[in-house]
Design a protein that fits this description.
The protein is α+β, with helices and mostly antiparallel strands. The chain has one domain (4-14, 32-154): 2-Layer Sandwich (60s Ribosomal Protein L30, Chain: A), CATH 3.30.1330.40. The chain is 30% helix and 28% strand. The protein is globular. Residues 6-148 form the Endoribonuclease L-PSP/chorismate mutase-like domain.
Length: 155
């Protein structure tokens, strides 16, 4: 029998990507007590880099929201791996940190990161409501448009 969160993903028509392997000297997540820290996830779908470029130059705010949503899907995939496949262990999304690769005159970082925040609330309901940062960056790894990290509480 599928868990509550797996059933919710299916109901929303959401498929998760494979949890990505790290590309440098770090691990995809760490856990201390009931707190899960998920490393920054970028715009990769099963090994294919997507949304390469800058907001305000190559992408609109709406496209940036799609990029942030993809980062959030990767966060959920990493959480699933950390929880041994049982996403029902996620008690709460505590915090998201969003980084937007934008031009110097791009200022809609919070609107872009809403793509990740809204997905967390769709998937986890009230437990998906979280604290957040949304900041601009002059560049991101691989020139991706968005990167998002997360802190989750686990049962």
């Amino acid at each position: 029998m599928a868990g509550r969160i797996e059933a919710r993903l299916k109901e929303l028509g959401i498929e998760l990507p494979q949890a990505a392997a790290p590309v440098a000297a770090y691990v995809p997540y760490t856990q201390s007590g009931n707190t899960l820290y998920v490393s920054g996830q970028v715009t990769v779908w099963n090994g294919e880099r997507r949304f390469v470029g800058k907001l305000g130059q190559d992408f609109t705010v709406e496209q940036g929201q799609q990029a942030a949503r993809l980062c959030a899907l990767n966060i959920i995939a990493q959480a699933k791996a950390a929880c041994g496949g049982d996403l029902d262990r996620v008690v709460r999304v505590l915090r998201l940190g969003g980084f937007v690769n934008g031009t110097p005159d791009f200022h809609d970082h919070p609107l872009v990161i809403n793509g990740a925040s809204e997905l967390m609330m769709q998937v986890f309901g009230d437990a998906g409501k979280h604290a957040r940062a949304a900041v601009g960056a002059p560049s991101l790894p691989g020139n991706v448009a968005v990167e998002v990290d997360a802190i989750l509480e686990l049962a």
